[in-house]
Amino acid sequence: MNTLTKHFLKETSQKNIIRQNEIKNLNSAKNSLWINVGIYIVITIIEYWLSIIGNSQALRADAFNNLSGVISTVILIIGLFEATNIDDDDFVGKPLSKKYGRSKNTLQLSRFRLETVFTLITSFVIILIALQIIVQGGVGLFHLKGKTSPNLLSAAGAGMATLLMIIVWYLNHHNGKKLHSTSLLAAAKDSFGDVITSLGTMVTVLLSYSLGLPWLDSVVSIAIGIFILWSGLMIFQECTLNLADYVDPTLEHSIKEAVLKIPDVHDVLELRSRYNGNIFIVDMFILIDPNKTTIDIYDLDEQIENKLREKFNVFDTTITVVPDIK
């Protein structure tokens, strides 16, 4: 077995390990999200029921907020299922040719991007529900006549929701960091917003009850809606940038500087990077001595790939060499 064959076997083995670890992490993220769904459903039912009994528009807004959590989390689970369904014979409903087309390993990289696509869809759900809450709160401000302040049952419901959402936020944040999962980290942002809104709802209900200010309930429901809208827009922005192959320019500059420090690289003519889900990929054109042999170029490629993998966690680096002819 020659050196080149050994290299390709080693590289393929490394990529397969990374790919399988990513699939394992996505499956773990999917299991965590099922816990989210269960807790969100319980909170939504309790809050909506108590909002009717307790006459609180802010608590009803929080219940709809948590309903958005149920919907968006189910959408994420569907996305993760598609991203990890390596044995499926179709891609989002389109049949795959077993004889032609991309290899199974290359296609899996495209599947990883589905995590981002479905996270983007959840941002639309969050934004739509936020707008509904804002509109309902605004309408409530113009119909204050005869409206009574919410009672303490609403405050109790918001308090229970706050405690449960702290648990959800911790699980999402901890597991998202551990698994490097964009979907769980997005869910963590959403659930942290839910903690704030539930806590704010509880404080609002208590103040409205104590001071006899029914308008405060509507004002805070609008504030909750605006906060949810902001969270949805941030998730939308992050996913859109990811799908548009946007990578932090500072990171790309650091990668370029690291490659330029390698003595045989005269210049980096072009560098493009992108994410497929959580997988980081880099393409570059480098300028080198035209008298380099094929073996020299091969060794240089290996040096660059290993450096970027170790320093920047780059899954795959595609290098095109250009002779420096003066």
What is the topological layout?
Elements: H1 3-54, H2 57-84, E1 90-91, E2 94-95, H3 104-141, H4 152-179, H5 182-211, H6 214-243, H7 249-260, E3 267-276, E4 279-288, H8 294-312, E5 316-323
Any key phrases for this structure?
Alpha-Beta Plaits; elongated; 2 domains; 73% helix; membrane; two-stranded antiparallel ribbon; mainly alpha; Cation_efflux_TMD_sf; 326 residues; transport; Alpha-lytic protease prodomain-like; Cation_efflux_CTD
Q: What features would you describe in this structure?
A:
With 326 residues, the chain is mainly alpha-helical. The chain folds into 2 domains: 3-243, Alpha-lytic protease prodomain-like; 249-323, Cation efflux protein, cytoplasmic domain (Alpha-Beta Plaits, 2-Layer Sandwich). It has helices at 3-54, 57-84, 104-141, 152-179, 182-211, 214-243, 249-260, 294-312, and strands at 90-91, 94-95, 267-276, 279-288, 316-323. The chain has a 3-stranded mixed β-sheet. It is elongated. It starts with a helix and ends with a strand.
- Strand percentage lies at 5-15%
Order of helices and strands: HHEEHHHHHEEHE
Give the number of domains: 2
Q: In CATH terms, what is the architecture of the largest domain?
A: Up-down Bundle
CATH topology of the largest domain: Alpha-lytic protease prodomain-like
Keywords: Membrane, Transmembrane, Transmembrane helix, Transport
Pfam families: Cation_efflux (PF01545), ZT_dimer (PF16916)
Transmembrane segments: 33-51, 63-81, 117-139, 151-171, 218-236
Membrane topology: Multi-pass membrane protein
